[in-house]
TrEMBL record:
The lineage of its organism: Eukaryota, Discoba, Euglenozoa, Kinetoplastea, Metakinetoplastina. This is Autophagy-related protein 27, putative. One of its GO terms (cellular component) is membrane. Residues 222-247 are annotated as: Disordered. The keyword Transmembrane applies. The keyword Transmembrane helix applies. It comes from Angomonas deanei. Keywords: Membrane, Signal, Transmembrane, Transmembrane helix. Residues 225-236 have a biased composition (Gly residues). It is found in: Membrane. It comes from the Eukaryota. Pfam families: ATG27 (PF09451). Its main location: membrane. It is a single-pass membrane protein. The chain crosses the membrane at residues 252-273.
């Protein structure tokens, strides 16, 4: 459950199995919701003209059941055995080309699992406004993992005007704090933020709402992340140390560039002076300190030549050629 599957209807990865939640209460305000949509979105009006999904599973009474999605690509399962396998098949409605899809499954109105979202993995799918069995509003549960460099998130529900609040769950998942859409939500770096939202409202007559949930990682304006000021202080201290290192490296590079520029100006100016005032016209004689540079180059060449010659003398004889431990003449010598 709470998984995302990509594939091509009737062609690739279109048959798979998911497991029903363990804590599912049948015939209540909960529901197992399966959603399939075309990918990318411009392939049609959601999945209406392109895709259908079929689910086979075992009910609470032990009998086999099968459901087919509605015109919106949605299946709602209200009676299912705990932790049973749900066999899912995604089919094409039209046969005139490939139909890539994205499939989602979640446990509505109960946090048995959480769909993972992030800046590079937005949730875009039709979600039923109300559950068919009980007419209860649909609550969907998500999670996102904060990187170590951020201590807050910002959630945007694009194209979903009815979604006005985000409920962030506490660590024990028994309480929640309500935030507005686009409001900065504090969290702990390196840990998951669990949250939920309700699509639609009680007065809505729509069957579904297209939920486009986008997540952005940010910082809470220098405030310590929720859960302890000590760790927040450590994080700030680490950031200051990194900034000091970066400033030191930048200062060294600037100094090195300045020295190289001054050296270049000195060499160009000295060469011009020797060429015009001292009437030295031969290259490289008019370059300042040319004799010193020439002697240095010759000395370096001699040094490497000597080193190369010493290395050649270190090679051992191969296949009996040259001197041998037993002495005597090489039989191949003439």
């Amino acid at each position: 459950m709470c998984s995302e599957v990509h594939g091509f209807a009737d062609e690739f990865n279109h048959k798979f199995i998911i497991t029903a939640p363990q804590d599912f209460e049948n015939n209540s305000n909960e529901s197992v919701v399966l959603v399939v949509r075309a990918f990318p979105m411009y392939l049609g009006s959601l999945s209406t003209s392109w895709l259908s999904v079929r689910a086979q599973y075992r009910t609470e009474q032990g009998s086999q059941a099968e459901l087919v999605s509605d015109n919106n690509g949605i299946i709602q399962i209200n009676s299912i055995a705990s932790e049973t396998d749900i066999e899912v098949t995604v089919n094409k409605v039209r046969k005139d080309g490939p139909a890539p899809f994205r499939f989602y499954s979640f446990h509505a109105n109960f946090p048995s699992c959480y769909m993972e979202v992030g800046p590079t993995n937005s949730f875009i799918a039709p979600v039923p406004v109300k559950l068919r069995a009980s007419s209860a509003l649909t609550r969907v549960y998500f999670k996102t993992l904060l990187p170590s460099s951020n201590n807050a998130i910002k959630i945007t529900a694009l194209n979903s005007p009815s979604v006005k609040f985000i409920d962030v769950l506490s660590d024990d998942r028994k309480q929640f704090t309500r935030y507005g859409i686009d409001e900065v939500i504090p969290g702990m770096p390196g840990k998951n933020v669990f949250f939920s939202l309700v699509t639609g409202d009680a007065a809505s007559s729509a069957e579904y709402e297209l939920l486009y949930l986008a997540v952005e990682y940010t910082t809470s304006d220098g405030k310590a992340p929720s859960g302890g000021g000590g760790k927040g202080g450590d994080s700030t201290s680490g950031g200051t140390s990194n900034e000091t290192k970066e400033e030191g490296s930048s200062t060294f590079y600037n100094f090195l560039i300045l020295v190289l520029v001054l050296l270049l100006l000195y060499m160009v100016g000295g060469s011009f002076y020797n060429y015009t005032r001292n009437d030295i016209r031969e290259f490289p004689d008019y370059i300042p300190h040319s004799n010193t540079l020439r002697h240095f180059a010759q000395g370096s060449t001699n040094f490497f030549s000597t080193l190369k010659g010493n290395r050649r003398q270190e090679y051992a004889p191969v296949n009996g050629y040259g001197d041998r431990a037993g002495g005597g003449r090489n039989p191949y010598d003439l």
